[in-house]
């Protein structure tokens, strides 16, 4: 009985998050209210409040899920081998996730609560990437690993951001340069 | 007489742009309406329309000015010398400009008109940076110059984006790595 109830509650929560994502994508952070999210999820506002105390709680859960997905997708892959190609072709796991994170980042510049969630999300991603890179390249010092992850994070965020404007150079030429940068980063220091 | 009128019109236009910037920063793109901008500029809505046909025209002018300022600040500086330090300390010309560009980027994911202005702005910045880098390093092929500018742009955008979360490694260690990357980029190819 309990597990059936839990499954139904989980499904309802999923619906609300999906509806919130559509609202934020279509109308932006401020234009999407709790009542709009309820309407989009085909629920009453009262029902929504049974699952989430407020809009902030929905946003927190939405960010958490995006980061969980990104970490899960990193797992078990030799990141530094794939990285030059992924950067050069401006690869993304999900355009929708990227757009939502951009929306949240714009909001974070005026909303300390959203900024705190983004900082937490970034720290989780960062530490996870450090653990993976250290395992892949045990000869690197922990300090060097953190530097590498920071520079790779900068390049990934920058590439995702630049997907908004047309690519101006050939991905092949870019891939060679990114390969050189990654090689340099993981050389023993 | 004409120049006096022009000066007054220019001052009025400046006031409107400044008011629009404050509105977008405080309430986000969608929450800021023409009547809000008018109120913030202490003008009537009718007066605003004498200077800008609509909110889009204000946004276009706002983006144009941000890019003009960035290009003017690049002018006459040996970019590749300064770059490692600027990247490592996550330097920005203006936090307000960055936040507004982030707001515009989030909007660009659903608004093709804003996306087109950002693409135009990026192209102007990109071509300007290419001209400067080519002058600074005449031995580089034009194709190599474009690749360098793209990678530098990725690192700059990524660094600005990551200013939203706490820095996790020492700027000194980062600066050395960025220096190696820049040296590699401008080595004759």
From TrEMBL, chains A, B:
Keyword DNA-binding assigned: yes
Domain HTH tetR-type: 10-70
Segments of the chain annotated as binding DNA: 33-52
Keyword DNA-binding: yes
Keywords carried by this UniProt record: DNA-binding
PROSITE patterns for the chain: HTH_TETR_1, HTH_TETR_2
SUPFAM superfamilies from the UniProt entry: Homeodomain-like
Record-linked InterPro entries: DNA-bd_HTH_TetR-type_CS, Homeodomain-like_sf, HTH-type_TetR-like_transc_reg, HTH_TetR
Superkingdom of the source species: Bacteria
One Pfam entry name: TetR_N
Name recorded for this polypeptide: HTH-type transcriptional regulator BetI
Organism of origin: Pseudocitrobacter corydidari
């Amino acid at each position: 009985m309990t597990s059936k109830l839990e499954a139904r509650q989980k499904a309802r929560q999923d619906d609300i998050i999906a509806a919130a994502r559509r609202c934020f994508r279509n109308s932006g952070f401020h234009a999407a209210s709790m009542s709009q999210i309820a309407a989009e999820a085909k629920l009453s506002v009262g029902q929504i409040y049974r699952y989430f105390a407020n809009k902030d709680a929905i946003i927190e859960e939405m960010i958490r899920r995006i980061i969980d997905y990104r970490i899960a997708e990193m797992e078990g892959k030799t990141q530094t081998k794939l990285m030059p190609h992924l950067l050069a072709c401006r690869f993304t796991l999900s355009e929708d996730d990227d757009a939502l994170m951009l929306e949240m980042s714009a909001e974070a510049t005026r909303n300390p609560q959203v900024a705190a969630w983004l900082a937490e999300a970034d720290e989780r991603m960062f530490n996870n990437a450090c653990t993976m890179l250290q395992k892949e390249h045990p000869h690197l010092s922990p300090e060097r690993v953190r530097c590498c992850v920071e520079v790779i994070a900068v390049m990934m965020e920058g590439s995702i951001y630049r997907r908004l404007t047309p690519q101006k150079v050939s991905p092949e030429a870019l891939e060679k340069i990114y390969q050189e940068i990654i090689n340099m980063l993981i050389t023993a220091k």
